[in-house]
C-alpha cells in the first residue's frame, strides 16, 4: 500500500518510494515521498477487532498542525525511517468487526474527531490518514452521502467539525457581528461558510489579499486585509467605523498567539472570543507579525474589565459533523478546494499544500486519479 510521508534525512534513497520530492520549508530541506508499505489485513472474526473497520483510503489532505511533526523529523539528522502524514481522508469500508452493524463493506466514510462523551476514543481518527489501508474504531468514522465527491469528502471532517463546534459554542444572536481571523485558513473558510449559512453577520480578517475575491464570490464583502508588518489597530478602527460598528460581538480565531492581544480592544464588553489553535507550532520561532499587540498584563486586565468570555475549542461533537454534512447536502456548505492531485503529482501537491501563498482552500491527493507523468520537483 501507499502512504504520503516525510523521510528522515538518512532514509532518503533507502525506503521504497513511488514518487519523491525535496523542498525547502522554514529553512529546512524536507524529503516528501509516496512510500510503499506492507499491506495490512484485519481478521473480522477476531474479537479484538469487534468494533473495528478495515478501510481503503481513496483520497486525503493535510493540516497546519502536521508541519510541526514533520519538521521535527526532517531536522533530526540522527534519525531513520519516515513519518506518515494525512489528517482528513475519504475511504471505502473493506471489512467490519463482529459488533459493527451500522457500516457495511462498500460504504464510504470520513473521519469523525468527536470529543463528546459518547465517543469511545475522543479526538482525531488518525494522524496518518494517507496510509492506504487502515484499521479504525467504528466510533471514529461517519458515513457520507453518495452525492459527495471524493475530493470534497477528503477535505471535510476536521475543519468542518471544528468550525461548526465553534459557531455552536458562540451561541450568537442574529443581530450580532462576528469577526473571523486568518480568513484564508481552511478552518476559517469553513467557519465563514457555517456563519453565512446560519444567516449571521460575518466579518473576515486576513493577511492574504488574494482571498478577497473568493470571499466576495461567496457573498462576503465585509473583510479587512491586514499588513503583517503593521500594527493593525488603525486598520481595524477604520474598518469598524466604515461598518458603523463600535466593536465586534465575537471573534473566531485559529491563531490566538497572533490575534488575541490585538483584538481584545475591539471586542465589546461581554463579548466572546473562541480559539482553536496557535500559529507558533514549530520548534523554531518565526515572526508572524512585527507588532504583537497589548502586553500580557494589559490583555489580562482588559479581558477582566470587559468581562470577555474566553473559549478554547478542540475539534467538536459528532452532532457538529452531522450538521455540517446535512448543510453540505442541502447546498449550504460548499467546500473550498484549492486543487486535487493524483499519482505522479506529488510535487504539485506538496507545493500547493505548504508553499503556495495564494492557496485557496484544501489541497487533496487522490490515489484514484490517473497517473500523471512526473515532472521535476
Ligand atoms: N483544535 C482543533 O480542534 C483544531 C482543528 C483544526 C485546526 N486547528 C488549528 O487552527 C489553525 C489553522 O489550521 P488550518 O489547517 O486551518 O491552517 P491553514 O489552512 O494552513 O491556514 C494558514 C493561515 O495562516 C495565515 N498565515 C500564514 N502565514 C502567516 C503570517 N506570517 N502571519 C499571519 N498569518 C499568517 C494565513 O491566513 P490569512 O492570510 O488569511 O491571515 C493562512 O491561510 C491551526 O492553529 C490549527 O492547529 C485546530
Hetero groups in this structure are: NADP nicotinamide-adenine-dinucleotide phosphate
Which quaternary structure do these chains form?
Answer: single chain
The span between the termini is 23 Å
Structural class: alpha/beta
Describe this structure in words.
The structure is a single chain. The chain folds into two domains: 187 residues, Medium-chain alcohol dehydrogenases, catalytic domain (Quinone Oxidoreductase, Chain A, domain 1), CATH 3.90.180; 150 residues, Medium-chain alcohol dehydrogenases, catalytic domain (Quinone Oxidoreductase, Chain A, domain 1), CATH 3.90.180. The chain is globular and about 60 Å long. The chain has ten helices and 17 strands. It starts with a strand and ends in an 11-residue tail after the last strand. The strands form three sheets. Strands 4, 6, 7, 8, 9, 16 and 17 form a seven-stranded mixed beta sheet that branches. A six-stranded parallel beta sheet has the order 12-11-10-13-14-15, sandwiched between helices. With 377 residues, it is α/β, with parallel strands linked by helices. It binds NADP nicotinamide-adenine-dinucleotide phosphate.
